[in-house]
Amino acid sequence: MKTKEAIEFGKNLRQLRLERGFTQEKLGDLSGLHRNYISSIERGERNIGLVSMLKLATALRIHPSQFFDYI
After folding, report:
1. Is residue 44 within 8 Å of 2, Cβ to Cβ?
2. What is the pLDDT of residue 69?
3. Cα 43–chain centre separation
4. Which of 3, 10, 50, 66 is buried most, with the most CB atoms less than 10 Å from its CB?
5. Angstrom distance (rounded) from CA 33 to CA 8
6. DSSP helix/strand/coil, 19
7. What pLDDT score does 70 carry?
8. Domain extents for the chain?
């Protein structure tokens, strides 16, 4: 079930990814996560764990707290 928080997190992830000019596949390669998994996060279908969040933050070169700037 999609939650408001998961949807907002996904929107933020997508915005950060696009700002860097990354495709979901490129972000997947950089983070070690599958592009389908990233897609489902961006759609708010996943409630991701801390390890995945840290991998994404590292790949995007951001502090993990930036995922929550707009929630």
Report:
1. yes
2. 82
3. 10
4. 10
5. 20
6. helix
7. 72
8. 4-68
